[in-house]
Amino acid sequence: MRHLRGLLTLCLFMATLGMSSAILAAANADEEKEVPKDLVLRGDAKCTTCHDENDSPKVLKIGKTIHGVNADSRTPTCTDCHGASEVHIKEAGRGGKKAPPTDVVFGEKSHSSAEEQSGACLSCHKKDAERSHWEGSAHQGRDVTCSSCHKMHGGYNKLLTKKNEIDVCVSCHLDVRADIYKRSKHPLRDSSSASGAGKMTCSSCHNPHGARGEKMVNANSFNDKCYECHTEKKAPLLWEHSPVKEDCLTCHNPHGSSNDKLLATKVPRLCQQCHMQGRHQTAALATNSIFAVERSCLNCHAMVHGSNHPSGSVLQR
Q1: Which of 18, 231, 253, 276 is deepest in the core (most CB within 10 A)?
Q2: Residues 6+ positions from 285 with CB-CB distance below 8 Å
Q3: Rounded to the nearest 5°, which phi and psi values hold at 23?
């Protein structure tokens, strides 16, 4: 009887030990199962437990952008852009209620100020010369943010919100949109290309992140920017035409015009804005007058940008 009782006690002890081991193993398995893993960015596990591939907008698309390259030590984390957002993380998924917003939210309807939104981006992107003039720029002064033009979780080329750069710019600059569809224009559009963009874009002349020049032109002056392509107009001349050296925009509209050569006004009216006195500048012109038909003033004064001819004082040769 005593041996039987000892045997029963031993069996009971072993059974208890086995159950305890099973319970501990199950607990450890659950614990290992509950530990979330990073999906895209370093340390994003606390975010991607909720923001998965079914999320809208598709936040995981960031893994296919330049911001999702884990091999690059500069790659940001979720909290680098959106802030620590402790309240958001703590309250997420509780009681089926919508979680409070993150510390920094991007977009027009965001509770975050334009300064906070752009500041999150500039914490990394202010280190290069392209964005060194953002502070005090026209866009910064009008509360334009990085997310007004870029979609950080995945957009088009350069993470733009639209298919090409011009479409992004003209969504605000409607007057420019009208100009680039006029018959005389720079090669900004090309219907044969996949994106519709031409040989030039807005950033060929402007720096949307700020520039030292007027109108965010990335040059010291309008003329210096024009000379980058129209180099033949830069050389010193024996006989100069003052408006040409002062400002190209005196006569030309760079975004487009209904007149030839991007002229702001049709000749002879363009010339008469300055040349108001003389033998024929303001005369009452006949129907077929050489001063009015075809190239008008340019029929005789062909070298309107200046002349190196010894007898070219009136820009005729």
Answers
A1: 253
A2: 268, 291, 292
A3: -65, -45
Q: Are 301 and 316 in contact (CB under 8 A)?
A: yes
Closest by CA position to 112, among listed 152, 78, 85: 85
Distance, CA of 236 to CA of 245 (rounded, Å): 10
Q: Give the Å distances, CA to CA, from 178 to 173, 253, 309.
A: 9, 12, 40
Residue 2 has phi, psi (to 5 degrees) of -65, -40
Answer whether 59's CB lies under 8 Å from 68's CB. Answer: no
- 170 CB neighbour count, 10 Å cutoff: 20
- Torsion sign across C-alpha atoms 256, 259, 262, 266: negative
b/e burial code for range 245-279 (CB count within 10 A of at least 16 → b): eeebbebbbbbbbebeebbeeebbebbeeeeeeee
| Burial class of residue 44, CB neighbours in 10 A (0-12, 13-18, 19+) | buried
Residue with tokens 């005389």: 184
Q: Which two tokens stand for residue 80?
A: 């680098």
- Sign of the torsion angle spanned by Cα atoms 30, 89, 41, 79: negative
- Where exactly are the structural domains of the chain? 128-216, 231-299
Q: Are 88 and 103 in contact (CB under 8 A)?
A: yes
Each residue's pLDDT tens digit, 88-107: 888 876 766 788 889 999 98
State the Cα–Cα distance between residues 212 and 94, nearest whole angstrom.
51
Give the tens place of pLDDT for each residue, 123-136. 888 888 888 899 99
In this structure, which amino acid lies at residue 285? L
